[in-house]
Design a protein that fits this description.
The chain is an alpha+beta fold and 75 residues long. It has one domain. The protein is 23% helix and 8% strand. It is built from one helix and two strands, in the order βαβ. The chain has a two-stranded antiparallel sheet with strand order 1-2. The chain is globular, with a radius of gyration of 14 Å. The chain starts with 5 loop residues before the first strand and ends in a 24-residue tail after the last strand.
């Protein structure tokens, strides 16, 4: 499936967000499993806006995740 996501955020966050995506892609390419974390500083200036085809429904976090960890895992 190919999806197109549009993102809007402050300039200073863009390199970090793209770095996170690049790390996810790299791990997939080498067949390695790791947590990839972006600190979502919601009480700071990280206020991203995302849009995508609403027929694709996002999954919720994995149950049992720790308070400070939101984990999404399709496996």
């Amino acid at each position: 499936m190919k999806i197109v996501i549009e993102a809007e955020m402050k300039d200073r966050w863009v390199p970090h967000f793209l770095g996170m995506l690049a790390q996810m892609e790299w791990l997939g390419n080498i067949g390695s499993s790791r947590n990839v974390t972006l600190f979502a500083d919601g009480d700071g200036d990280f206020r991203p806006k995302f849009t995508w085809d609403t027929s694709v429904v996002p999954a919720g976090p994995k149950t049992g995740s720790a308070y400070d960890e939101t984990l999404f895992d399709a496996g």
